[in-house]
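Practice problem: predict the structure.
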Amino acid sequence: MTEVLVVGGGPAGMAAALAARRHGTRVVLLEAGDDVGGQYWRHLPGGRADTRERLWHHGWDRFVAMRDELLGDEGCEVVTGAHVWSVDRRDDAPPLVHVFVGEPDGQGREPRTFDPAALVLATGAYERTLPFHGWDLPGVFTAGAAQALAKGERVAVGRRVLVAGAGPFLLPVVSSLLRIGAEVAGVVEAAGPAQLARGWATRPWQLLAARHKTGELAGYARQLAARRIPYRTGAAVVAAHGVDRVEAVTVARLTRDWRPIPGTERRIEADAVCVSHGFVPRTELATAAGCAVGVDGAVTVDERQRTSVPGVLTAGELTGIGGVDLALAEGEIAGTVAAGGVPAPGAVRERAVFRKFAVRLAAAHGIRPGWRAWVDDDTVVCRCEDVTAGALRQAAELTGSRGLRSLKLTTRAGLGLCQGRTCGRTVEDMLTAANEPGLLDPGRTAHRPIAIPVRLGELSTSTRTSNREDVP
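Answer:
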């Protein structure tokens, strides 16, 4: 009987685990958080459960049913607080997976090693925020951080909040902020009417298969209208102002390629600003396992969600940003194939529908190159190493180098504590623009190392106690 290890307890990982179990396979599901659900179904902990939790989520009843099925199944072990810190590659099999179980900074974490016959990676994505002058002030948050605090802690990031960036994710963030009593000063979408029309208005009948998304959008639109919250398109936050924290932001209108239009600047008072320009796949485990990654930063998979490494499959945002419906469909296919089954036609159709939806999403809200014009030389790009945009541009000009690796070593950009998780794609984009022929090694920022804090004492304990008995 095939054993399946699933890493990641979000929608894709949950769907993969359930699919594998339905094919009679024993499963272990590893989740770093305190509960499954991922960022999409992030919720209050059990000790502070809210009877109105479903009001905060789309598909809450589906999540509860999926979680109950997993937790009530003796053939599926759900391990929360599980942090993968290393993998050992093998030639013709999935890698060994080394895990510490417990609080990230706690004492006495339990070391475990898994030797799976099939490995499904569903590690999700990181949020991307384009830099602007003052984005390192206290009070500037990613939209995802604001959403996490609202849904997971019922905490507002500010009293008067501006939400800005690009993509439909801005709207549920607004909804969550309103639920916890924050005033939303406005929503600023960088994509202009022409870009939005190219993504959503072209062949609109093709959206019928994903029509429930239209219902979600209508609900958010009603909230904005009821609160008279302004929604601006073709504009962006180009600066944040304040002494000890954000006090105001400057918003400017943009050209079609997202270049600020001089003379259109407008100052908006706010004590917090939430900014998101989309997501990038979280590829650390996949690259450590040896999986091929494309220049777009997504893991390369075939029609059965298989990677370039035998026995390793991926699902969800790791294969490309597409939302929860695509993640669920890919997870079901990956779990089925990992268990030796054949994907159901319904799951294959769902994946096709929402892959097309993902293409529209990228067309409507994808980042355009003109944003670099609002980043002046004094703007910090790499916050870990305090590297400015001017330092990046100067290094590219003075050295004449076209190698991303060498330019990162020269400037230290992307080499700090976060290892480029916050600034990697931005650094790469700026250095690409500074090199007229382009970089010789584009896409390398997706090749980040695993960064899980491990004490030396834990390493010695892991070496003594981890063994192949602790496997599915």
